[in-house]
Every structure is written in structure tokens, then in C-alpha cells.
Amino acid sequence: MTESTTTSPINGRQDVMEDTMKGTIDIAIVEDNSRYLQELALLLGNSPRIQITGCYEKGEEAVTGIVEHNPDVVLIDIDLPDISGVEVIERVSAQGCPAEFLVLTVYDDDKHLFAALQAGAVGYIVKGSTSLEDIEGAIMDVIDGGAPMSRVIAKRVIETFRTSRAPKKTKTKFDGLTKREMQILEYISHGYTNRRIADELHISYETVRTHLKNIYNKLHVHTLVEAMMLYRNR
């Protein structure tokens, strides 16, 4: 009898980082605006590094397609005609799919922002604040272990971290981290990219990625946003 296996949400982020080190990046697009969806598909489809596995205008069909095709990154709107993008993220993640979700929406309020991040989104971009050409860069940033956000969104997230109190249960989570891992978290909290961290610490880019994997494991998180939240609230 063959044992069935599922992908752990904690390891999902690492799987995407490792699987996309070579070859193309598989992405899916979930967007109810047909014209905008076509523009995104045309732009990203012309990239030699990207392969589009599916385009969806409704949430239910997106859940089915994403789980079936297992893309590396999903560009997703929040306002969909049947179920919300947040529910799509929750349902796909609950089925063990390690896809990374990058929200692309018109909403810039706290309610939608934190609902998406809590559901598991690793990035949040407000339409109009980023050009279509820059969206490809945001996808690469996700693959690189980053958490791309529009400037106004990033500022709001940081302010929330600064004003919130640390939960008691997180006080000992950092005891198992090495001095180097704490240094990397400090740089990340100031918005440094993996490559810049490597330059600052005089270590290789791959060494930074390895440290990040260890940090995710030790903190029991699977996104950079979660790691930043714990670090800010420590």
C-alpha cells in the first residue's frame, strides 16, 4: 500500500525557494477584471523565466486549478465574484499546496490587508502603485524569499508591529536562534533584500537563504511576514 503525503505549510516556503532555483517559475493569476487579466497574462507570458499555469476569474475555479497545477506563485485579487481572494488563499493552503500568494488589489485598508496576511499571503501590492512591468520583479522577489509590498502598505505593517505588544508565547522562540540568524532578522526588519544582507555580512547569497530556512524552522513559520511579525513583537 502506498502512503499518501502532504506538504507541510511550514516547509512550503522552503520548497518554493528550492524548486525555483533552476528553470522557469510557474505562476497562476486570479483576477476578475478580464482586461486587466489579459494584460497581466500577456506581459508575464512574454518573460522567459515565467510560465503561466492558469488564469482564473472566479475563486472556486481558482482553488481547483491551483491545487491541481501547483504553481510557485499566485497573483490574486481580493474582490472576486463568488468567494474572496482571502478564502481562496485559506482553502488552497489548507489542502497542503505550497504556492506563494502575492495579493494584487485596489484595497489599501487594514481590514483587507491583515486578513490577507493572516491567511498566508507573502506580499501585498495596491493596483496603481506599481507598474505592470514591476509586477514581474515582485514575483522574483517572492521567489527570492522577500515580501513585496506597496510603500504605503509596508509602512502600515511596520507601524502595526511597532505599536503591538509581544505575546507571551513568543518570548522564548528566539532562544534557539544563533547570533547570525538574529543579525539576518534585524536586517530583514529594516527592509534589506537577501543579496544586500549577503553583502553586509560578507557571506554568500546561498548562505543567507540557508539561514532563512533555519529561521523558518526554528520559529515555526513559513513566510517572511510571519518571521518579521514575531521579531517585531519579541
Describe the 3D structure.
The protein has 234 residues and is an alpha/beta fold. The protein folds into 2 domains: 9-158, Response regulator (Rossmann fold); 166-232, Arc Repressor Mutant, subunit A, CATH 1.10.10. It is built from 11 helices and 5 strands. Strands 2-1-3-4-5 form a 5-stranded parallel β-sheet, sandwiched between helices. β4, α5 and β5 form a beta-alpha-beta unit. α4 runs parallel beside α5. The protein is globular. The model is unreliable at 1-13 and 16-22 (pLDDT under 50).
Question: What is the class of the largest domain in the CATH system?
Answer: Alpha Beta
Please indicate the percent range of residues in DSSP E strands (runs of 2 or more): 5-15%
The computed structural class is alpha/beta
Biggest sheet: strand arrangement: 2-1-3-4-5
